[in-house]
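Model: You mentioned two targets. I'll fold them one after the other.
Researcher: Yes, keep them separate.
Model: Target one:
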Amino acid sequence: MIDSHCHLAGEEFTADLPAVVDRARAAGLTGALVILSAGDELEATRARRVANLWDDVVFSVGIHPHHAGQHGTDVEAAVAALDEALTAHRAVALGEVGLDYHYDFSPRAVQQEVFRRQLRLARERALPVVLHTREAEEDTFRILAEEAGGLRLVFHCFTGTRVVAARALELGAWISLAGIVTFPKASELREVARTVPAERLLIETDSPYLAPVPHRGRRNEPAFVARVAEAVAELRATTPAAIAEQTAMNFAVLCGAGRVRGTA
């Protein structure tokens, strides 16, 4: 079982990282994709500790839309630094990247420019792209249509409607479900979970955020992806083991089986 999106190098896990890794393994995880923020040197240092403790993790690096505004005056320099970070972490994916109009921490025009440039870098490096989109679907799909031809895409922590899911699937994207699928008010998301083609499905925690029921309100962690697998299995009338196996295979296809440890 793979947690296809977590922030395990975050400071939230500094104090008890070995125990967190032990619980993940005990829950049946064979690996995880750890998301890193380009330019965050403290996080990069913590990432090395993560890799030393859990050699089955792999990394993705990107400029989050919240941070895009920091690079608006020199996008090319930021992308060059990202390119170096991808090499340094032997990244199997680029991200998370995209657009976030909910908080608007960065100007929208800058978010779009940084997003476009990262999609081009992903194509140059033949890397899949981990997408973040919040209240920005129309611009996200417009930019993907213009820039993302031939790229492997995953809509991480998917919270959209069935219509948005259909549009993502038309692009050949993967849909990654997190603990939100267990929340009482997420009825439409559960419909998405029932209908996504099996070969396009992923599961994740997005830890330390969005812990699933019955852990809601606590710090999330990779072990809790097992609860996501249980919830999705119930919705699809199958077993957690089948969901774990299918999504691990899907993750290997997304990121390239030769690059991903822990998915054999």
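Model: Target two:
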Amino acid sequence: MKYAAVPLVLVMLLSGCAQRASEAGPDERERVKRTVWTRSLELFLEYDEPEVGKKTPFLFHFTILDSFKPLTEGALTLRVAAASGRALTVKVDAPEKPGIFRTELSFPEKGRYTLKAAVSGKALRDEVVVEGIEVAGEREKLERKHRGGNEGNTIAFSKEQQWSVDFRVEPPSRRSVSSSFVSTGELIPISDREVTVPAPLTGLLSVSKRLPHSGQRVARDEVIAQIEPAVSQQGGIGQLSAAYAEAKNRAVLAEKEYGRAKRLYEAKAVPKRRVDEAEIALDTAKAALDPLEKAVQSLKEGRSENRIMVRSPLGGTVVELFVSNGKAVEAGQALMRIIDTSMLWLRADIPATELGRLTHLDRATFSIPGFEGEFRPIRLVTVSNVVDDKSRTVPVIFEVSNPNHLLKAGMFTNVAIRTDYVESGLSLSEEALFEDEGRFFVFVQTEGESFERREVRTGIRGGGRVQIREGIREDERVVARGGYYVKLASLSARMPQGHGHEH
């Protein structure tokens, strides 16, 4: 599993939060928690309920939204203004630890304050505005103390935990989602871009020309081997010449017989079957003649110092080598297999029951485990007209461009084929979604370090997105990456009522 090995630091952080929760005293004041976002920053703010004229500790947690990592440098300037117009300014030169600034503020009068937190660093400058900071007198303080709250369903996952793992929180987006069907596939060589090179005659593979190694790229017509012919006529050039002459005579006779059968058929002297049989015989004779003709031609063009040059019939990659230098080979024996992987076929087996709703098979993308992003075939090659009687699937083949040879023949893929069904609405990354006994849920961020498990009703899926019909609002933020860690935190500890945590 992707998350089978949980980092030791995460376990320690989880146990640490649980320990702080159990050690919190019953008389400790409840902390106020606020979370505010800008385009580039998330500010999670913690502070004790402010009282007039008393210093109040404030803890600022800054997360950079591009990377979801802590802000590590820069100064923090705070300007706190009351409704009456009175204001105070405090500057913190640097974070106490990555992402965390700490200071104390003293408020001259009760009422509502606005806090502006300006961050200025080499890489980032931004300002976060926090409205409605309530400063109470003794009477309001007592009323709030007896009011209480219920955080029994809250999952605690601190900023230190979030920053230490691959984690991201983001709002759902409103967009159109196209439904798609996902199937497994495999990248395979194109039939006419794969060749097994045979030895044109019996002899010894010369040690003066090193054979290409497996994985080496060769060009079309490049010399890939040299053969020193056998001294005897048996299996050597003499045998090749004789075989070529015999095959050529058969092809000539077959061509004459085919022409004769056509003339007789046109004169209505023989049935059509006679022409078909003659045509098949001609094709067979030509197929037998072709490799021998190429071998003889290579002898004429490539013979040098009693060595025969074997040239590559296509440009590609040597994927298998069946021989080694200095070894004896027989005429027709396979020397090596070469594949041109600049173009590949993608074969996907589609369940026959799904074909009816896949109206546009050419709208396909595929992904490969371990590779970033998606790939797109350049065209649909063929759809089989026969259903496999064992798997009840229909083979579909796409053509894939591979100019940089990044993709390898034999790779397995996940193929997504879109349908015409498109809906607009809220959607999330599929990575945000969890399933439990047929029901789906996500983790919603209620505050900077607080989350809740929320059941949702899903819609169509496609392109790595899932439509959410019910369960979340557009202004909420959902764990889009690293939800497993929040799930683990929910099993480890709950956020205590009325207590924050100290860093």
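Researcher: Noted. Anything on target two?
Model: Helices lie at 8-23, 138-147, 159-164, 237-266, 272-302, 483-492.
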